[in-house]
Specification:
Elements (H helix, E strand, L loop, with lengths): L8 H8 L1 H10 L7 E5 L19 E5 L9 E3 L5 H9 L4 E6 L4 E8 L6 E2 L3 E4 L7 H5 L5 E3 L6 H18 L4 E8 L5 E7 L9 H8 L4
């Protein structure tokens, strides 16, 4: 019975479960990395199981319903596959396995407006070692942020369009953040949608809002 702002239960449940999010976005022709799901306890799942057909290294392995990059691994060698799967399954029965999108990490924040959702300035994340993990997210000074992201105007427009589309498809309200990887050729892929975005001094949505003149 406590009042709250932002997205409702349904949108937050969809966004928290990466498998459901990606299926819904793909249905609406919104680009997401190609991938699949590996269930814990499946015969052969683990150190000796093959990497799913159609995927080539490097790949990303992560729990289906975790946040803050918890349980996420980038697998660059076959010897890393088993441990990565085990790590993801320690947090969730479902492990999302998808192609690693080489390129830049960009966040697209969206706010509800009187005439519909509005995309805020984009933020590029430049993390140490190229991996925006838990420490890079929450330890001040480890990661550099560029806002607005130094991208070609057409790429920025496309990211903002996709962020608003994802916001609407998921059914978000209030403030939300959509995370992207952008290839060297400027093609954006959505990684996830955050219906309860961070509000710390290193968080991305407040940074984008400040750039737009909002406190």
């Amino acid at each position: 019975g406590m009042p709250y702002t932002g997205s409702g239960v349904r949108a937050s449940a969809i966004a928290m479960h990466k498998v459901t999010t990606k299926a819904l976005l793909a249905y609406h022709d919104i680009p997401v990395p190609p991938g699949t799901v590996v269930l814990a306890g499946r015969k052969g799942a683990g150190r000796t199981s093959p990497i799913p057909a159609g995927l080539r290294l490097p790949i990303v392995v992560q729990p289906a319903a975790e946040g803050s990059t918890i349980g996420v691994s980038i697998v660059r060698r076959r010897s890393e596959w088993g441990p990565a799967l085990k790590r993801a399954h320690a947090y969730d029965e479902e492990a999302v396995v998808e192609s690693y999108i080489a390129g830049r990490e960009v966040a697209g924040a969206v706010l509800a407006g009187p005439r519909g959702p509005v995309a805020l300035p984009t933020v590029e994340i430049v993390a140490p070692g190229g991996f925006y993990d838990y420490a890079a997210k929450y330890q001040k000074g480890r990661t550099h942020y560029l806002c607005p992201a130094p991208l070609p105007a057409a790429v920025t427009r496309r990211i903002k369009e996709l962020a608003v589309q994802a916001y609407q498809v998921i059914g978000c309200e209030g403030a939300a953040r959509v995370d992207f990887r952008v290839t060297p050729k400027g093609r954006p892929y959505i990684l996830e949608v955050n219906t309860i975005p961070g509000m710390t001094e290193t968080s991305l949505l407040p940074m984008a809002a400040a750039q737009a003149g909002l406190d």
